[in-house]
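Per reviewer request, we include the raw input and output of the structure prediction for the construct analysed in the revised manuscript.
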Amino acid sequence: MIDYLDTGATITGEYYANLLAQLRDEIKTKRRGKLRKGVLLLQDNAPVHTAQVATSAAQRCNFELLPHPAYSPDLAPSDFYLFPKLKSELAGQRYSSNGEVESAVNGYLDTLPPSFFLEGLEMLQKRWAKCISLKGDYVEK
């Protein structure tokens, strides 16, 4: 699921809570039976993620929230895996509208095989284990 925020808009706890409900619906549609097996949700400690309205929404969706150590951006697959590759793919291009950027991003993501995302999760698993062995210290690589 991808959500493109309107220019000038701000992500609030309320906005994020609505996204979680949409995510639950997407999982129900695209991954039949997954909700019964359980969904682990890894999010950082950003205020919108820890807001009462957001944590309540996660509970209503029956998502299990994984603890996220403070100051650990190294445990966000979007930051260490997805976004650097996306940035590299889009580098040097000029876009005249947000719609063009959205099309380029969607086009790139559509070309990725499922193994791409599995690799990112496997890297997360290794980083998570390293973070535990370091007692929560910064992992980076």
